[in-house]
Amino acid sequence: MNLNRKPKIGFLLIGAERFQPLGEGTKDGTYKERKAEETKLYLGHITKFADVVFEEPVYTREAAQKAVDRFFAKKVDCVVASFMSWAEDFAWIRFLRELPPMPLMLVSFVRDSLAITDTNDENQFIDFLSAGALVGFQEASGSFRRFNRPMSRLCIGTIAQVMPKIQTFATAAKVRAVLRESKVGLLACYNEAMWATYVDPYNIFMKIGPEIHFLSVAEVVDEIQRTDDSMIQKIVDQLAAKYEVYPNVDFEKFHASVKATYAMEQVAKKKGVDLLVLNDIDTVLFQYVGLRPGFTPLDPKEEMVTVPEGDIGGGLATYILQILGGCPANFIEPFYIDHENGLIVAGHAGPNHYHSGEKNTIIARDERFAKTAWKYAGAPFAWHVFPAGLKTMLHMSEKDGKMKMVATLVECLPTKHYLASYSHANFKPVSGTPEELFQKICENGVTQHYGVVDGDHLDELEQLAALCDFDFCRID
C-alpha cells in the first residue's frame, strides 16, 4: 500500500455549448478558447498536490457520461466539479445521476479582478459571458442539493481561497480510499482486560473499508522456527551499531526479540496486512513466543503500521495519521498530568515506530517483564522518546455502531528517556491547561489510546469524518 501517494482527483469543468463559437476574431479569442486558457490555470494549481484525471471541459450529455466512466475506471478518490459560466444544465444533471457514490465537491472559481467596462465591445461582451461562473454555481447548486448525494461539499472563492479547501477535501478522500483498500491484522485477539476497545469487524468493513484478518500465535511460532539465525544476527548487529545499547541488555534475548519481530512482520505481510494490531499482553503470546516482539518496524521505510494492546480503534487512528502526516505516527496513552508544570506525560509500552532519530532511541531491557517467569523475561525493545514538535492527537473508538473521532493539537516537548519500558514524551496542550483539555476529551467518552503525528491535520480529519459518517469532536 502506497500511503504517500498524491490524492487522485477527477476534474469536471462544465461550459456552455451554445457559447463555444462566440467571440471569433476578438482579441482574446472565442469563449471556448478562453475556457481552454482558464483550464490550464486551474490544472496548474491542482496538479501541485494531486494527480488529476481530466481530458477537456464538458459541453454535452455524451461528454458528461464519458467523464463518469473515466473517473470510475481510473478509481479517482474524489471529483471536483465547476461550472465555468452559465451553462445548459443537462450535462450536470446527468453527471449527478450517473456518478457512483464517491466524494464530490462543487466549486466556483472567482476571478481576482475584472476589466469589464463596456460590453458594447464584443471582446468585453464575451468576457462578460465567460465571467459568469456565479450564475452557473447558483444553477448547479439547485440540482446538487436536490440529488442530496452523500459525501458532497461546495465552496466558492478565488483560486487562492479555494485551492486549500480542494486540497483538504481531496486528501481526506484519499485517506477514505486507502482505508477501503487496506487490511487489518489482529494478532491474535482483542485485549480481554480492555473491553471498551472492542469494535465490530463487520461494521469496520462496511462503514470504513478495511477487512480484518485474525492472525494466530501458532503462525508466528512456525515462522520463528523456519527463520535463519544468521540473517537475524545481521539485523541485531545493524540495530546495535545504529542505536545505543544499555549494558544490562542480554544479547541472546535481543536476538530472540528481533527474531520474533521479523517472524511477526512476515506473517502479517504474507496476508497483505497494512495495519497490524498486536495484543502484546496476551498470555498465549508469552507462553509460546516467550516475549513481546520489541523491534517493529525493523525497516525504517516500512509502511505497515503496528500498534499494541489489540485496539483496532487506536490502530486506525495511528494508521490514518500516518497517511495524513506522510511520516511515522506513534501510539500513545496519556499517563498522568504534571499539574505543576502544565504537562501531559504520555507514551506506551510495546511496539512503536522508533526510527525518527538515532538519539531518540535506546535499546533497553523491558523492565516491566524482567522479573516474570517467561522464557525471555526482560527481552530488550526499542525504547523511544517521540521527536519534539506540534502534533495532531487523534482518538477513535466505536459507540452505538458508529465510529467516533476526538482530535486536538498538542506540543511534544524535548524529552529525555526516563520512563523505563515505555516509549514516551512530555506534551503540552496548544491552548488551555491539561485539565481543561481532558475535561473536553472525556466528555465525549473515549478510551485511553491515541495516535499522534507531526503537524496540524485537524481540517483533513474533520473532512474525513464527514465523508465516512463518523462522529467528530474537534478540540482547538
Q: Which terms would index this structure?
A:
476 residues; Rossmann fold; L-fucose Isomerase, Chain A, domain 3; 2 domains; five-stranded parallel sheet; 24% strand; elongated
Structure explained in plain terms:
The chain is an alpha/beta fold. The chain has 2 domains: 172 residues, Rossmann fold (3-Layer(aba) Sandwich); 293 residues, L-fucose Isomerase, Chain A, domain 3, CATH 3.20.14. The chain is built from 14 helices and 19 strands. The protein has a 6-stranded antiparallel barrel with strand order 11-12-17-16-15-18, surrounded by 4 helices. The protein has a 5-stranded parallel sheet with strand order 2-1-3-4-5, sandwiched between helices. Helix 3 packs parallel to helix 5. The chain is elongated, with a radius of gyration of 27 Å.
